[in-house]
Structure formats: structure tokens, C-alpha cells
Design goal:
The chain is an alpha/beta fold. The chain is built from five helices and five strands; from the N terminus they run βαβαβαβαβα. 51% of the residues lie in helices and 14% in strands. β4 (85-88), α4 and β5 form a beta-alpha-beta unit. α1 (16-27) runs parallel beside α2 (40-54). The longest helix has 29 residues, at 103-131. The protein starts with 6 loop residues before the first strand and ends with a helix. Pfam families: adh_short.
């Protein structure tokens, strides 16, 4: 797949998975838009390293992906038509037995692991359709297929993300 000159938006930019994906995409020729909740100063070194290594543009937006208004603000601040590749790599795992799981923790896990990817997909999919090119990559987990233990909200959200990915695939097969 030719990635030279494409722009990739990567959520979870400050995390282990997101940072590796962002670096790999930049090295493959993409400009990168990193999104995460951590302050810009914390990821400054990663941004500078990716720029130096890849010679690509790297932008960073601090954004609480649980907050839909924050997501929409990111898209107001950038040209959403510039997003060719969306990588939903942000995630969180909370360990709780179902009887101990608070509504707030449930809402935050579902918000970050499932609702945020849904909102982001909605923001880019029409533009990708109009361009006739786009890629959406959702990072899920084997636990979305094989449930175990006391990570109820994580399993539910990752199972939902797999379902969302399947629906998205069906949609893409019918438009491209």
C-alpha cells in the first residue's frame, strides 16, 4: 500500500501501541496527527524523534477522547479532509468484578474503547468516500473474542469495537 504523502490520525499517540504505529506510518511516508490526553510537553520528545527519523510532519492534539466535544474540537482545528488513515489505538483496561464496577468506570471504558472510535469514524468516513480512498484501523483485543476474568467493561467495549469494525467493512465494501 502506497502511503507516501498520506496523512494518518493516530489515537493513543502517547501509549506503547499508538507511538509504534505513528512512528511506522511516518517512516512509511505519512504525515502524522497524534491524539492523546497527555500534555504536549510529555510527548514533545516522541514528536521530535519521529520528525527527525522520518522527515515527515507530525502534529499533536491533546484531547480527552471520552469527551465528544474534545473530539469535535480537534476536527475544527485541523482540516478533517486531510485524514487519509484513521488508527483507533487508544484504549484503557479497568479490572473490576461486575458487582464492583462503577457506572463511571463503565462509561469511561466504553467511551474510550468504543464510542470514541465510532465518533471518529463518523467524522472521516464521508470524506474518505468522497476521495475514493481511506483506511480505518481499529485496534481491539483477543479479549473481544475470548472473554476472561474481571475486566467486564474492557471485554464489552472491545467486543463492540470488533462489531463496529465488521459493520464498517460492510459499509466500505459497498462504497468502494
Amino acid at each position: 500500500m502506497e502511503l507516501q504523502g498520506r496523512t494518518a490520525l493516530v489515537t493513543g499517540f502517547a501509549g506503547a501501541i499508538g507511538s509504534v504505529i505513528a512512528t511506522s506510518l511516518a517512516n512509511a511516508g505519512c504525515d502524522v496527527i497524534g491524539v492523546d490526553k497527555v500534555k504536549h510537553d510529555i510527548v514533545r520528545m516522541s514528536i521530535d524523534e519521529i520528525k527527525a527519523e522520518s522527515k515527515r510532519n507530525v502534529k499533536y492534539f491533546q484531547c480527552d477522547l471520552i469527551n465528544k466535544e474534545d473530539i469535535h474540537k480537534v476536527f475544527q482545528d485541523l482540516k478533517s479532509g486531510d485524514v487519509d488513515i484513521l488508527v483507533n489505538a487508544a484504549g484503557r483496561l479497568s479490572i473490576n468484578k461486575i458487582e464492583d464496577l462503577s457506572d463511571d468506570v463503565w462509561d469511561e471504558d466504553i467511551g474510550l474503547n468504543l464510542t470514541a472510535p465510532f465518533v471518529l469514524i463518523k467524522l472521516v468516513i464521508g470524506l474518505m468516500k468522497d476521495k475514493g480512498w481511506g483506511r480505518i484501523i481499529n485496534i481491539s483485543s483477543i479479549l473481544g473474542i475470548k472473554a476472561t476474568g474481571s475486566i467486564i467493561s474492557y471485554i464489552a467495549s472491545k467486543t463492540g469495537l470488533i462489531g463496529l469494525t465488521r459493520v464498517k467493512l460492510y459499509f466500505f465494501l459497498n462504497i468502494f
